[in-house]
Amino acid sequence: MQSNKTMNRRFVLFSLIIFLTIPSIFAQKERIEYLPNFDKRALHFGYYLGINNNSFEVNYFDQSGLDPSSPVNPTPEQDMFVSVDASLGFNIGFVIDYRLHNNINLRFEPGLMSNAKTITFIDPNLDAAPNGIPIYGGSTTDPVREVAGTYLHLPLLLKLSTNRLNNIRPYVIGGVSYDYNFSSNEKNGKDNFEGEFRMTAHNFMYEVGVGVDFYMYFFKFTPSIRGIFAMNNELVNDRNPVDYPQYSSPWTGPVDFLGTRGIFLNLTFE
């Protein structure tokens, strides 16, 4: 968890450096207004490249009524059921932009998002057994899962821009997306009892961010920082027939919600 947090801080710092240095570079140049009619077009296109640091948000079942020593949304990092270590990934796609108003644009940005995560399952209470049903039976023998994720990302976004100042135009952006996980293993007949970690294939997310349009001589260049958050639970529970399904598996049993949460930096060319 600590290494993942350090990577998040470095990622945000790197993104902020880009946002702080690029405007100063532009400010040193002669103020000639490039592409003066660019924003008057009703429809235009582009493409983007980027990097992401997508991890998982994990919430747990409330176990306080069953075992007081079992964590309820645990705060100490060493007491968490699930630890996620995410690596940097990439984004690539294209842009369809439709002007609704001088300061409002509707954007469709289909593309691919990909990165890898290492999930470690931690057992803080190996002897916990509410109503005689073991929670963590045999879980310590196979605690790590390597989860590769490649998503078809289909976001529909609303972009709200300020008025243009010379060749710079800041904006905020937000919307929802449908995301298909090519690596989900959702229909795999095996589960964690046989070494397979499964996630849902069909997912919905929302994203919010900020960016700046820079008008160049031949094109518009736009860096943006965005956060992305899953709206649905992406975890597919293991199949273990017991009377208490929330405790049916030492891997997925304690988890109430597992969904994508991340940050990414996109560089767009229009």
Overview of the molecule:
The chain has 270 residues and is mostly beta strands. The chain has a single domain (2-269), classed as Porin, CATH 2.40.160.20. It has one helix at residues 2-27; strands at 43-60, 82-86, 89-101, 104-108, 111-121, 144-161, 168-181, 202-215, 220-230, 255-269. Strands 1, 2, 3, 4, 5, 6, 7, 8, 9 and 10 form a ten-stranded antiparallel sheet that branches. It starts with a helix and ends with a strand.
Task: Summarize this structure as a short list of keywords or feature phrases.
270 residues; mainly beta; Porin; ten-stranded antiparallel sheet; 1 helix; 10 strands; 10% helix; 46% strand
Task: Report the portion of residues in β strands.
Answer: over 45%
Rg calculated over all Cα atoms: 22 Å
How would you state the average pLDDT, rounded?
79
Top-tier CATH class: Mainly Beta
Shape designation: elongated
Q: Which stretches are low in confidence, meaning pLDDT under 50 for 5 or more residues running?
A: 69-80, 125-140
- Find the structural class using helix and strand composition: mainly beta
The helix-strand sequence is: HEEEEEEEEEE
Helical stretch count? 1
Distance between the termini: 38 Å
Fraction of residues in H or I helices:
under 10%
How many strand units?
10
Specify the biggest β-sheet.
10 strands, antiparallel
CATH architecture heading: Beta Barrel
Named CATH topology: Porin
Number of individual domains:
1
